[in-house]
Amino acid sequence: MADSGRLHTPQEALESLSSGLAPLPPEWVALEAAGDRVLAQTLHAQHDTPPFDNSSMDGYALRASDSGRVLPVSQRIMAGQRAAPLEEGTCARLFTGAPLPEGADSVIMQEEVDVRDGGVFIPAGLEPGNSVRLKGREIRTGETLMSHGLRLNSAALGFLAGQGFDRIPVYRKPRVALLFTGDELKLPGEPLAPGQIYNGNRFMLMDLLPRFGAEIALVEQVPDTLEAMTQALERASHHVDVIVTTGGVSVGDADYVRRALESLGELDLWRLSIRPGKPLALGHINQCRFVGLAGNPVSSFVGAWLFLRPLLGGLQGCDDMKALPEVIARADFTTRTAGRDHYMRVTLTWDSDGYRAHAFEDQDSSILRSCVSANALAVVGAHSQVSPGERIRCLLLAS
User: Fold this and answer.
1) Which of 75, 111, 221, 352 shows a CA-CA span of 20 to 30 A to 311?
2) Cβ contact 228:187 at 8 Å
3) What SS3 state is found at 164?
4) In the chain, where does DSSP find H-type helix?
């Protein structure tokens, strides 16, 4: 059981999440479905890229030693066509990407020549290799193409396609269950009775977690009873890799999530020395990970970035998701912290002095509006004061 008598640091929470964490089993997927997936094994080049010497522009291919005179055009070569060997004392008209004919060693762009009735005048001084993309310039057969653990972006997909890969091995997406507590929560479009509110966390997390590579397998609104929460956790634990709850992990009489978790599995860590997000709970039910976020929307937002992102990244074998990228920025605000680290929602801009952090005026954990334009979290340590112009550490909100 977790020590509930003290507040834990964010680093302790990350260490708890990483304990025993291993990537999920790999699977093969079609290349068109591999965007943002994480490569499960190192791939090697299947052929040279480019596969043949080719022209980097529209122009004329020739032997550089023939420059400085008029050369007849002996052939015309389009991209995708096979080139015949270049006849002695001639040049070949060719276009970007077209193969260099055997015997040619350079290309001159069309704007630099003088086309005449008897051929093409090539200015003197042309060097071998001019405007030629040599075979294997980008990569050669057998070289490492991409290493395992790489999260595939659009350029990576294009590079893989250029090597002829139509299916690739990636780590399976973590399956996530989202369980929301609070009898006061209603869905947009439903009428609100006195004391009820709309469930913003549901739609925020359903959009955010897939950006971290998750597959949302279950979404459920759970009644505010210990029995209902226990049953919901038990059901979900058989079908997903991670259970995420919002609300119910504080110390109120109706906060049943912690008790339900402890009846089924283990509570590994509870309560953090951060603002917002103090009531974070981490645990597991057999092999299923559990992350209990606070119910306040900003706490859920910040907790998802700080803790769910690295957990989901670890399950996908992606080291780049272990921590958010950092920059140093100059504050344009004043703040004073008490006994907890404060993760302030800020918008970063760039000027001649570097990054500047603009904080939303109301940083209360209920004000989700503070997150709408935020692109970073400014980290202000406990018992600290920040004045305008001071340098502060900012975590970029980059999925």
Assistant:
1) 221
2) no
3) coil
4) 10-18, 154-162, 200-211, 226-237, 257-264, 297-303, 309-315, 369-372
Q: To the nearest whole number, what is the mean pLDDT of the chain?
A: 94
Which residues have a Cβ under 8 Å from the Cβ of 261 and sit 6 or more positions away?
A: 233, 267, 281, 283, 285, 290, 292
pLDDT category of residue 182 using cuts at 50, 70 and 90: confident
Q: What is the pLDDT of residues 199-214, one digit of tens each?
A: 999 999 999 999 999 9
pTM for this entry: 0.89
pLDDT at residue 315, rounded to an integer = 98
pLDDT in tens, 333-361: 999 999 999 999 999 999 999 999 999 99
Q: Which class is domain 54-133?
A: mainly beta
For residue 99, give the amino acid letter.
P
Mean pLDDT, residues 144-173 taken together? 97
* Domain 10-24+172-321 is found in CATH 3.40.1550.10: no
Q: How many CB atoms lie within 10 A of CB 143?
A: 12
Tokens describing residue 31: 């290349």
pLDDT of residue 250: 64
Cα separation, 391 vs 394, in Å, equals 9
Does 3 have pLDDT greater than 70? no
Closest CA to 107 of 61, 138, 71, 151: 61
Is 204 exposed, middle or buried (CB count within 10 Å of its CB: 0-12, 13-18, 19+)? Answer: middle
CA 169 to chain centre: 18
Specify the pLDDT at position 52: 96
* Average pLDDT over every residue of 315-334: 96
Q: Which CATH number fits domain 26-48+138-171: 3.90.105.10, 3.30.200.20, 1.10.10.10, 3.40.50.170?
A: 3.90.105.10
301, with CB counted inside 10 A (0-12, 13-18, 19+), is buried
Interatomic CA distance for residues 25 and 41, integer angstroms: 11
